[in-house]
Amino acid sequence: MSNLPKIAWIGLGIMGSPMAENLIKAGYTVTGYTLEADKLERLAAAGGTAATSIAEAVTDADVIITMVPASPHVEAIAYGPDGILAHARRGALLIDMSSITPQTSVDLAKAAADKGIRVLDAPVSGGEAGAVEAVLSIMAGGEQTDFDAARPILEALGKTIVLCGPHGAGQTVKAANQLIVAVNIQACAEAVVFLEKSGVDLTSALDVLGGGLAGSTVLTRKKDNFKNRDFQPGFRIDLHHKDMGIVTDAARTVGAALPVGTLVASLVASLRAQGDGGLDHSALLRGVERLSGHTTES
């Protein structure tokens, strides 16, 4: 029998499935629950155990990891008679890796403490590729002792793992991350349209830009999306729209001006309103093309 902690995983989407599979590869026993039957089948095929309810998944777990889209989803799986807090054992560690509002994380930690359950907020950056390759950046909020206990598990999922402060701090840093990513994608998209309209070979241009000060992880990860107009979702516009709402609201609360971020948030919202919410966030290119009077709609 393994001496590693038993893990319950709630939420097996684009990110959650490969992350859970990486824990299985690392030797952890993983019991998962999600609403999609095919995702449960995938987990079982990878060596995990499919549960039929949250209660079944978490009852015997030492560590519970959640990876769902937004604050309402976290609240739905955490609270109520069928939720995590009602069925997890005292002393269990709940690691929420969803991207939600900092206040939601703070509230969850308080509610869990009343049940004797420890909590970390630990959102991630790196997209689907980072999840598959186990090279995610993980920004955590919570107690140092809980972070230390979770670290071996997090090391099976990512490469840059940092405790950023108390409960909610991880979510605040993730909001800043999403601000930087959105602005970066928008800048890259504008550059792509400018280059193409100028008649420059796009592949050569992006290669040389990537090797200079303009280079970034965003450009490296997304340049093929731009070149091929491949917008299969690694991280959907819908989710980035949600995240831009988080960062603009949080910035307003603390009195931080986001002049560029607010504009890009509007551009993300516009793209979503035009029906592109299910596409990868690199589809911000489509918005620039429309504004430039040139589209390659698929």
What does this structure look like?
With 298 residues, the chain is of the alpha/beta class. Helices cover 54% and strands 13% of the residues. It has helices at 16-25, 37-45, 54-58, 71-78, 84-87, 102-113, 127-133, 144-155, 169-197, 202-210, 217-228, 237-254, 259-276, 284-291, and strands at 7-10, 30-33, 49-50, 63-66, 93-96, 118-121, 124-125, 136-141, 158-165. The strands form two sheets. A six-stranded parallel sheet has the order 3-2-1-4-5-6, sandwiched between helices. Strand 8 (136-141), helix 8 and strand 9 form a beta-alpha-beta unit. It is globular. It starts with 6 loop residues before the first strand and ends in a 7-residue tail after the last helix.
Note the topology.
Elements: E1 7-10, H1 16-25, E2 30-33, H2 37-45, E3 49-50, H3 54-58, E4 63-66, H4 71-78, H5 84-87, E5 93-96, H6 102-113, E6 118-121, E7 124-125, H7 127-133, E8 136-141, H8 144-155, E9 158-165, H9 169-197, H10 202-210, H11 217-228, H12 237-254, H13 259-276, H14 284-291
Parallel strand pairs: 1-2, 1-4, 2-3, 4-5, 5-6, 8-9
Antiparallel strand pairs: 7-8
